[in-house]
Amino acid sequence: MITKENFNFSFDESACGGCGGACCTGKSGFIWINQAEITALASLLNISKDELKERYLYRLDGRYSIAEKPYNDGAACVFFDEIN
């Protein structure tokens, strides 16, 4: 179970196996990401923040959103694992 201080919800990462990616796929939209998350994701991927922004994000009105890829009749987060 993933929890974060000052948030009144938690995330059960084992739930991902049961929904088939319902929260990561569907209609195209925005997957907003803040600077702290950009830093953490770049570190996780072992790339610079600039490389992360260039490869996986796009900027809109001063904010960043994670890119999407075509999936079924809609879109999916670029990090969505279609194999599992």
Describe, in short, the structure shown.
With 84 residues, this protein is an alpha+beta fold.
How does this model look, in words?
The structure is a single chain. The protein is α+β, with helices and mostly antiparallel strands and 84 residues long. It has one domain (2-77). Helix content is 27%, strand content 29%. The protein is built from 3 helices and 8 strands; from the N terminus they run ββαββααββββ. It has helices at 16-19, 35-45, 49-56; strands at 2-3, 10-11, 25-26, 32-33, 57-60, 63-66, 68-71, 74-77. The chain has a 3-stranded antiparallel β-sheet, with no helix packed on it. The longest helix has 11 residues, at 35-45. The radius of gyration is 14 Å and the shape is globular. The protein starts with a strand and ends in a 7-residue tail after the last strand. The model has no long low-confidence stretch (mean pLDDT 85).
Features of the shown structure:
three-stranded antiparallel β-sheet; alpha+beta; 84 residues; single chain
Described by strand count, sense and barrel closure, the largest sheet is: 3 strands, antiparallel
Shape: globular
Strands of the biggest beta sheet: in what spatial order? 3-8-7
Rg (CA only): 14 Å
| Number of distinct helices | 3
Oligomer: single chain
Spans of at least 5 consecutive residues with low confidence: none
Name the helicity range.
25-40%
Order of helices and strands: EEHEEHHEEEE
* Spatial separation of the terminal alpha carbons: 20 Å
Which percent band covers the strand fraction? Answer: 25-35%
Query: What is the count of structural domains?
Result: 1
Average pLDDT taken over every residue: 85
Q: Would you tell me the structural class of the helices and strands?
A: alpha+beta
Number of strands: 8
